[in-house]
Request: fold
Amino acid sequence: MPVFKGLLQKQLHNRLAASRNRLYRLAYAWCNDATVSDDLTQDAMTKALRNSRQLKDPAKLDQWLNGILINCWRDHYRSRKEHENIDDYELYENDTPEQQWVQSDQRQRIRHAIAKLPESQRMVVTLVDIDGTSYADVAETMQIPIGTVMSRLCRARKTLIQRLQDLRQVTATVNTPYLRRVK
Reply:
């Protein structure tokens, strides 16, 4: 029996290690600070390893880890009492410099718009739209009704659409090319 238990522990450790990058991206999306993201991820991984016996269903490992990370973020947030930006970036390896600049500019605008959301909406948006977590898992992880998840997500998306459209209109008027006569 100890051999079987050891194999399960090793399997769990491997799955935890595989989840580290995903947890880091989530943490970075919430705080936009690499150092804080590392700390939050490390705290979550440490707590997960220490409390691995509390995991009742190995199929729900990601949901369990999200809950631990959310609690770590809440602890950090309470200790700092400040809102931070959010960042969701992907690496684009084969794009031209112009495409990279446009994509970077778009990410910056989206990050800025998401950062202005209330924390509860920002967390739901990052979990559902960025991490791909199901509504039910977000509701269970955040300990709120699924209807609340849906309404926060709906409000957050509407707000983001409005803010990004406003930004597009402002940018379009500022960056509108024009011809001028030169003599």
Notes: The chain has two domains: 1-84, 85-176. The two ends are 91 Å apart (CA to CA).
